[in-house]
């Protein structure tokens, strides 16, 4: 099974495929995504060749002109058809509604509809996400498998104490700390987050609140503005770069609440990352995120604006008055990576054999 694109900075794929050998399956990453075109040359050398496409952003990556985008889509369709014509099978995971940095949302939907039609197996991370995607594309639910996103307990170091983590950032024991960890991109509603958090801090200056931000910013003007605002705020500590894997534990052990209040999302690995470290979360109202999660361990942002996030921050105050960590831990343990990998591979093989 070949897979692409390869998420080198996200251990999701390593967790998803960790059990494949038990089923006689070998995986190979296609680091340069367009090289999947070469698979048709070797498909007859193996018993079964499966191409697993994750994110579709590589198809139109960096393209600014619509005619060029059209040509790339034709090339992509031709390459997929050639691969399937040589006996290969296709799997597609429905990660996003459309790629986060898309210049042509309508063309991205065309690509997704093509994959939905051509795929032998569709992988969804929740049943609710299928309902969301059916508003944009049509697909046969008979070829769908649903396997949730795993937690990250096997992926990141987790030995630092809360006090040592806070010491690394110069935080006090009484500080109420919120964390935003991951690539800094416009779809995460960064301007709304900053303004809402600043207003929240101003409501009661006697309570010390800090926002920890760690992640590589892109070149979008909104993101650059967010970074500048954070650097100039006494309420925010920001490290605008990719956070080394061994240091992720410091961010999460120093924090009290994880933030994933993105303006557009279908699934979120960030939620499971926060919950892996026992953090309650504030997140959007997307039904796919709330399929199993409850208000015991999370707070919902009702509307994707300043008032909506401000309201969620106020309601999330309850997390500081109770020991919610054990409840979050219990929830996250239900998404064990090894168990879910077995479910994924066994269901994938069964669907391909049907």
Features:
2 domains, 6-stranded parallel beta sheet, about 350 residues, globular, Rossmann fold
How does this model look, in words?
The chain has two domains: 2-150 and 336-353, Glycogen Phosphorylase B (Rossmann fold, 3-Layer(aba) Sandwich), CATH 3.40.50; 162-333, Rossmann fold (3-Layer(aba) Sandwich). Helix content is 37%, strand content 14%. It has helices spanning 12-16, 66-85, 105-118, 127-133, 162-169, 190-203, 221-231, 248-254, 269-276, 306-315, 325-333, 337-353; strands spanning 2-4, 28-29, 50-53, 89-93, 121-124, 144-146, 176-181, 209-214, 236-239, 257-260, 281-284, 298-301. A six-stranded parallel beta sheet has the order 2-1-3-4-5-6, sandwiched between helices. Strands 9-8-7-10-11-12 form a six-stranded parallel beta sheet, sandwiched between helices.
Topology:
Blueprint: E1 2-4, H1 12-16, E2 28-29, E3 50-53, H2 66-85, E4 89-93, H3 105-118, E5 121-124, H4 127-133, E6 144-146, H5 162-169, E7 176-181, H6 190-203, E8 209-214, H7 221-231, E9 236-239, H8 248-254, E10 257-260, H9 269-276, E11 281-284, E12 298-301, H10 306-315, H11 325-333, H12 337-353
Parallel strand pairs: 1-2, 1-3, 3-4, 4-5, 5-6, 7-8, 7-10, 8-9, 10-11, 11-12
Helix pairs in contact: 2-3, 5-8, 6-10
């Amino acid at each position: 099974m070949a897979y692409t694109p390869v998420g080198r900075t996200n251990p999701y794929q390593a967790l998803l495929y960790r059990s494949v050998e038990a089923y006689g399956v070998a995986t190979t990453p296609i680091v340069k995504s367009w090289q999947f075109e070469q698979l048709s040359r070797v498909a007859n050398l193996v018993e079964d060749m499966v191409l697993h496409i994750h994110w579709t952003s590589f198809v139109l990556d960096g393209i600014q002109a619509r005619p060029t985008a059209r040509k790339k889509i034709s090339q992509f369709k031709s390459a997929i058809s050639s691969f399937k014509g040589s006996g290969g099978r296709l799997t597609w995971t429905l990660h996003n509604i459309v790629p986060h940095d898309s210049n042509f949302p309508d063309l991205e939907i065309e690509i997704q509809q093509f994959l939905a039609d051509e795929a032998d197996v569709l992988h969804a991370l929740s049943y609710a996400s299928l309902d969301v995607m059916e508003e944009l594309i049509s697909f046969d639910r008979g070829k769908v498998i649903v396997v949730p996103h795993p937690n990250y307990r096997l992926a990141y170091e987790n030995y630092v104490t809360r006090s040592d983590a806070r010491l690394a950032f110069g935080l006090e024991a009484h500080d109420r700390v919120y964390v935003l960890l991951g690539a800094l991109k416009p779809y995460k509603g960064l301007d709304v987050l900053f303004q809402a958090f600043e207003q929240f801090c101003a409501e009661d200056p006697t309570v010390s609140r800090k926002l920890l931000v760690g992640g590589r910013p892109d070149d979008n003007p909104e993101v650059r503005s967010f970074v500048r605002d954070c650097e100039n705020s006494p309420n925010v500590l920001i490290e605008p770069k990719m956070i080394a894997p061994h240091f992720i534990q410091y961010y999460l052990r120093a924090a009290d609440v994880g933030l994933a209040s993105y303006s557009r999302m279908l699934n979120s690995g960030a939620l499971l990352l926060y919950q892996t470290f026992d953090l309650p979360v504030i997140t959007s109202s997307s039904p796919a995120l709330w399929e199993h999660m409850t208000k015991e361990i999370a707070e919902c942002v009702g509307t994707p604006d300043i008032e909506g996030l401000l309201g969620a921050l106020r309601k999330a105050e309850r997390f500081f008055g109770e020991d919610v960590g054990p409840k979050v831990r219990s929830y996250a343990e239900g998404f064990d990576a090894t168990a879910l990998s077995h479910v994924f591979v066994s269901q994938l093989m069964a669907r391909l054999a049907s």
